[in-house]
Amino acid sequence: MREIEVKILEVNRKDVEAKLLKLGAKKVFEGELNAVMFDFEDEKIKNARDLLRLRKDGKKVILTYKKFVNVSDVKDFKEIEVEVSDFSKMKEILEELGLAVVESTRKTRISYQLEGVHFDFDKYLDENIAIPEFLEIEAEDNIVLHKYVNLLGFERKDCKPLTFFEVREYYKN
Q1: How far apart are CA 25 and CA 10, in angstroms?
Q2: Long-range contacts of 50-56 (CB under 8 A, 24+ apart)
Q3: Residue 64 near residue 51 (C-beta atoms within 8 A)
Q4: Of 44, 58, 60, 148, which has the maximum CB count within 10 A?
Q5: Hey, CA dihedral for 132, 135, 141, 147, is it positive or negative?
Q6: ∠ CA(67), CA(70), CA(75), 5° rounding?
Q7: Cβ(69)–Cβ(50) under 8 Å?
């Protein structure tokens, strides 16, 4: 599956949620996400701009590989996901294969969905608490994505095709 997404930084969640509800969006998740990212010692995954992540999402555990496709005005990855039954055991398997944890994150997320488009409000916790809450919009293509960007009152210039690591770097300055 393709993941076409952008982040809109420093949003007023209450205002955007009201717009989403008026458009007919449905809340599909509210809770905490715990994630660990893995790489080999030679940083093969990072150097390819890819990502290997194990995430606990409520009661679900998902292993995700994101293969870099393109970054223009959106972030574009080929995304392969599989649900696994045990976070700790999957982490152990990956480490036995020679992968190491390069990052661990914890965040709260409120998710909405409308016509196949995902809207996630993310707020990082712990050492990343200084990153303000932001909105991530994911759609099947650029046209649909930007349609909803505009319907929510934003413009293309508000859209950032950033990864977590780039968002963290953005707020270090």
Answers
A1: 21
A2: 50/77, 51/77, 51/163, 52/94, 52/99, 54/84, 54/87, 54/90, 54/91, 54/94, 56/87
A3: yes
A4: 148
A5: negative
A6: 85
A7: no
State the pairing for strand pair 51-57/26-39: antiparallel
Facing residues of 144 across strands?
A: none
pLDDT digits (tens, 9 = 90+) for 87-100: 999 999 999 999 99
Strand partners, 38: 52, 101
What is the reported pTM? 0.91
DSSP state, 133?
P
- DSSP sequence for 11-37: --HHHHHHHHHHHT-EEEEEEEEEEEE
Residue holding tokens 């205002």?
A: 15
Q: At 87, which amino acid appears?
A: F
* DSSP assigned state of 85: S
Query: What are the percentages of helix, strand and coil residues in the chain, rounded to 5?
Result: 30, 45, 25
Catalogue all structural domains in the chain, each as residue range(s) with its CATH number.
Answer: 2-172 (2.40.320.10)
Written as six digits, the tokens of 11 are 């949003």
Give the amino acid at 51.
L
